[in-house]
Amino acid sequence: MHRLRHVPLFTLVALVLLTHSALSGAAPLSIELPTETARFEPSPLPGYAIASGKCSICHSADYIQLQPPGMSQSQWRGEVSKMQHAFGAPIDDQEVDVIAAYLAQTYSAEPRAKAAEASGAASSGTP
To answer: Where is the signal peptide (predicted)?
Structure first.
Protein backbone atom coordinates (compact mmCIF):
# COMPACT_ATOMS: atom_id res chain seq x y z
CA MET A 1 0.00 0.00 0.00
CA HIS A 2 2.88 2.33 0.79
CA ARG A 3 4.28 1.92 -2.76
CA LEU A 4 0.98 2.87 -4.42
CA ARG A 5 1.00 6.33 -2.82
CA HIS A 6 4.28 7.15 -4.56
CA VAL A 7 3.23 6.01 -8.03
CA PRO A 8 1.34 9.24 -8.85
CA LEU A 9 4.27 11.33 -7.59
CA PHE A 10 6.71 9.26 -9.66
CA THR A 11 4.45 9.64 -12.71
CA LEU A 12 4.25 13.40 -12.22
CA VAL A 13 8.03 13.74 -11.93
CA ALA A 14 8.51 11.60 -15.04
CA LEU A 15 6.05 13.74 -17.02
CA VAL A 16 7.76 16.94 -15.93
CA LEU A 17 11.17 15.63 -16.95
CA LEU A 18 9.91 14.37 -20.32
CA THR A 19 8.13 17.65 -21.04
CA HIS A 20 11.18 19.67 -20.08
CA SER A 21 13.48 17.64 -22.28
CA ALA A 22 11.07 17.84 -25.22
CA LEU A 23 10.67 21.60 -24.92
CA SER A 24 14.34 22.35 -24.39
CA GLY A 25 15.05 21.25 -27.96
CA ALA A 26 12.28 23.41 -29.47
CA ALA A 27 13.37 26.47 -31.43
CA PRO A 28 11.97 29.82 -30.26
CA LEU A 29 9.01 31.07 -32.28
CA SER A 30 9.62 34.29 -34.16
CA ILE A 31 6.87 36.28 -35.85
CA GLU A 32 7.69 39.25 -38.04
CA LEU A 33 4.85 41.70 -38.67
CA PRO A 34 4.75 43.95 -41.72
CA THR A 35 5.71 47.59 -41.30
CA GLU A 36 2.75 49.84 -40.48
CA THR A 37 1.96 52.05 -43.46
CA ALA A 38 -1.23 53.77 -42.31
CA ARG A 39 -0.77 57.21 -40.82
CA PHE A 40 -3.08 59.73 -39.23
CA GLU A 41 -3.77 62.70 -41.51
CA PRO A 42 -1.35 65.46 -40.47
CA SER A 43 -2.95 68.54 -38.96
CA PRO A 44 -1.95 71.55 -36.90
CA LEU A 45 -4.83 70.69 -34.54
CA PRO A 46 -3.66 69.45 -31.11
CA GLY A 47 -5.80 66.32 -31.50
CA TYR A 48 -3.47 65.09 -34.24
CA ALA A 49 -0.54 64.60 -31.87
CA ILE A 50 -2.74 62.99 -29.23
CA ALA A 51 -4.41 60.63 -31.71
CA SER A 52 -1.08 59.71 -33.29
CA GLY A 53 0.39 58.90 -29.90
CA LYS A 54 -2.52 57.35 -28.05
CA CYS A 55 -5.03 55.94 -30.54
CA SER A 56 -2.34 54.08 -32.44
CA ILE A 57 -1.44 52.15 -29.29
CA CYS A 58 -4.48 49.94 -29.93
CA HIS A 59 -5.28 50.26 -33.63
CA SER A 60 -3.91 51.59 -36.89
CA ALA A 61 -5.01 54.79 -38.55
CA ASP A 62 -6.85 52.63 -41.10
CA TYR A 63 -9.50 52.00 -38.44
CA ILE A 64 -10.36 55.72 -38.44
CA GLN A 65 -10.86 55.71 -42.20
CA LEU A 66 -13.27 52.78 -41.93
CA GLN A 67 -15.74 54.88 -39.96
CA PRO A 68 -18.78 56.26 -41.79
CA PRO A 69 -18.07 59.51 -43.66
CA GLY A 70 -19.70 62.68 -42.40
CA MET A 71 -19.55 61.91 -38.69
CA SER A 72 -20.11 65.02 -36.58
CA GLN A 73 -17.87 66.10 -33.73
CA SER A 74 -20.49 64.78 -31.32
CA GLN A 75 -20.44 61.37 -33.01
CA TRP A 76 -16.64 61.30 -32.95
CA ARG A 77 -16.76 62.28 -29.26
CA GLY A 78 -18.98 59.25 -28.68
CA GLU A 79 -16.51 56.97 -30.47
CA VAL A 80 -13.51 58.34 -28.58
CA SER A 81 -15.39 58.10 -25.28
CA LYS A 82 -16.27 54.48 -26.10
CA MET A 83 -12.60 53.73 -26.68
CA GLN A 84 -11.77 55.36 -23.35
CA HIS A 85 -14.45 53.68 -21.23
CA ALA A 86 -15.29 50.38 -22.95
CA PHE A 87 -11.82 49.50 -24.22
CA GLY A 88 -9.63 51.23 -21.63
CA ALA A 89 -7.84 53.57 -24.03
CA PRO A 90 -5.32 55.74 -22.13
CA ILE A 91 -7.15 58.98 -22.93
CA ASP A 92 -7.80 61.70 -20.35
CA ASP A 93 -11.28 63.22 -20.16
CA GLN A 94 -9.91 66.55 -21.44
CA GLU A 95 -8.38 64.84 -24.48
CA VAL A 96 -11.67 63.32 -25.67
CA ASP A 97 -12.99 66.62 -27.07
CA VAL A 98 -9.59 67.56 -28.54
CA ILE A 99 -9.34 64.25 -30.40
CA ALA A 100 -12.99 64.45 -31.50
CA ALA A 101 -12.43 67.93 -32.96
CA TYR A 102 -9.41 66.69 -34.92
CA LEU A 103 -11.27 63.64 -36.22
CA ALA A 104 -14.38 65.62 -37.21
CA GLN A 105 -12.39 68.30 -39.01
CA THR A 106 -10.01 65.86 -40.67
CA TYR A 107 -12.13 62.81 -41.45
CA SER A 108 -15.59 64.27 -42.11
CA ALA A 109 -17.20 63.93 -45.54
CA GLU A 110 -15.89 67.29 -46.82
CA PRO A 111 -12.16 66.68 -46.18
CA ARG A 112 -12.52 63.12 -47.53
CA ALA A 113 -14.19 64.40 -50.70
CA LYS A 114 -11.42 66.97 -51.24
CA ALA A 115 -8.75 64.32 -50.70
CA ALA A 116 -10.46 61.93 -53.14
CA GLU A 117 -10.83 64.73 -55.67
CA ALA A 118 -7.16 65.68 -55.35
CA SER A 119 -6.14 62.04 -55.63
CA GLY A 120 -8.28 61.55 -58.74
CA ALA A 121 -6.93 64.71 -60.37
CA ALA A 122 -3.35 63.69 -59.61
CA SER A 123 -3.81 60.22 -61.08
CA SER A 124 -5.54 61.49 -64.22
CA GLY A 125 -3.12 64.37 -64.76
CA THR A 126 -5.89 66.95 -64.46
CA PRO A 127 -4.87 70.11 -62.55
So the answer is: 1-26
